[in-house]
User: Which sequence fits this backbone?
């Protein structure tokens, strides 16, 4: 299965975000606590360079509690200000204000020294489609200020929301990035519903889900559907046998009594997305910590080889390019 979804409206939204970034003090990125690595958009790192960064591990109520704290530590170690949030119920949302304040301490101090007092903090809320940005904003603000929905692409344009005299939020449409270098990332994004289902083969997606569940949560399929799972299921053929069993148990049959694995596939995906299989996390910080270590080692090696092959040291003649300008005006209507 190949995953790619970068429609025109995302490229447009990214341009809007680039145009507005100069107004922003802090970028609050929502990731999905079930796949915190895959749901973190690498383009945001480029966009938010030199800005304070907050990561909210949203939908933490749907994830496996055993890994939530570990993921929080993982991102904190990388220098982000982090909070675990359930935007739907509001759990953890209050503490976000504190986290944002911490992330903005340096900026507030800079303002104070310049004699600027009480200028509101401006935060851009970013994240992949369907991660819960608008739900978070509504919960944070304490009333429905922006439209939400359980499908990707609900928020269309930009929208400023004044939370209080201390903080203003910019809601943005969910964006992905042009190419998933690692297709496993695309698969996980599709599973949580951040890629439009209309462009996916949901039966193939369900087969991949069976393989992931068998690997990380071997009991859940037996518990939910009362089916026998062989010890080794490591290919799509094995997975389709399991889908067949689910189809039979759930009376998803086509004429002649044959198992309807397409319907069973949809049922399995819906059950996963609706946490009927339990609270499931599909990525684990320990595996990414190893990957990070490898990347750091490779970067260090690359730096060493550049150093040894470098001729003359280069002078920076004009630093204006690397200083970000601080804008003060917002050019958008408030939705209050
Ligand atoms: N269980 C749970 N559901 C959530 C949470 N946050 C959001 N949701 C649900 O996730 C779905 C998507 O929420 P939205 O707020 O519309 O997501 P969005 O990121 O604004 O989506 P786009 O505007 O399409 O990019 C909705 O059905 C929400 O109810 C959460 O923390 N926990
Ligand atoms: Mg939205």
Assistant:
């Amino acid at each position: 299965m190949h995953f790619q979804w970068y429609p025109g409206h995302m490229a447009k939204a990214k341009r809007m975000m680039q145009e507005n970034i100069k107004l922003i003090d802090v970028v609050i990125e929502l990731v999905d606590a079930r796949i915190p690595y895959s749901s973190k958009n690498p383009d945001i790192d480029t966009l938010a360079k030199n800005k304070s960064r907050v990561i909210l591990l949203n939908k933490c109520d749907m994830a496996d509690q055993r890994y939530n704290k570990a993921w929080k530590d993982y991102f904190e170690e990388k220098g982000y200000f982090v909070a675990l949030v359930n935007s739907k119920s509001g759990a953890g949302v209050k503490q976000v204000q504190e986290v944002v304040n911490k992330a903005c301490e340096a900026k507030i101090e800079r303002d104070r020294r310049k004699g600027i007092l009480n200028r509101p903090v401006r935060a851009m809320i970013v994240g992949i489609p369907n991660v819960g940005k608008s739900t978070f904003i509504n919960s944070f603000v304490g009333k429905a200020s922006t439209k939400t929905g359980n499908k990707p692409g609900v928020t269309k344009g930009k929208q400023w929301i004044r939370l209080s005299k201390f903080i203003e939020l910019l809601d943005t449409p969910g964006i992905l990035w042009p190419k998933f270098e690692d297709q496993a990332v695309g698969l996980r994004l599709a599973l949580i519903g951040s890629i439009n289902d209309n462009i996916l083969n949901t039966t193939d997606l369900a087969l991949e889900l069976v393989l992931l569940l068998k690997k990380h949560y071997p009991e859940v399929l037996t518990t939910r559907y009362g089916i026998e799972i062989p010890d080794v299921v490591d290919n799509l053929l094995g997975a389709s046998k399991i889908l067949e069993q689910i189809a039979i148990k759930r009376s998803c049959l086509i004429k002649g009594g044959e198992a309807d694995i397409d319907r069973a596939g949809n049922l399995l995906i819906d059950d996963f997305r609706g946490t009927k299989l339990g609270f499931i996390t599909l990525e684990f910080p320990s595996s990414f910590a190893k990957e990070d270590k490898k990347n750091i080692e490779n970067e260090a090696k690359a730096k060493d080889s550049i150093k040894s092959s470098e001729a003359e040291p280069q002078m920076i003649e004009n630093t204006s390019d690397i200083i970000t300008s601080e804008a003060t005006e917002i050019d958008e209507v408030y939705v209050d």
Remarks:
- The first strand starts at residue 26 and ends at 32.
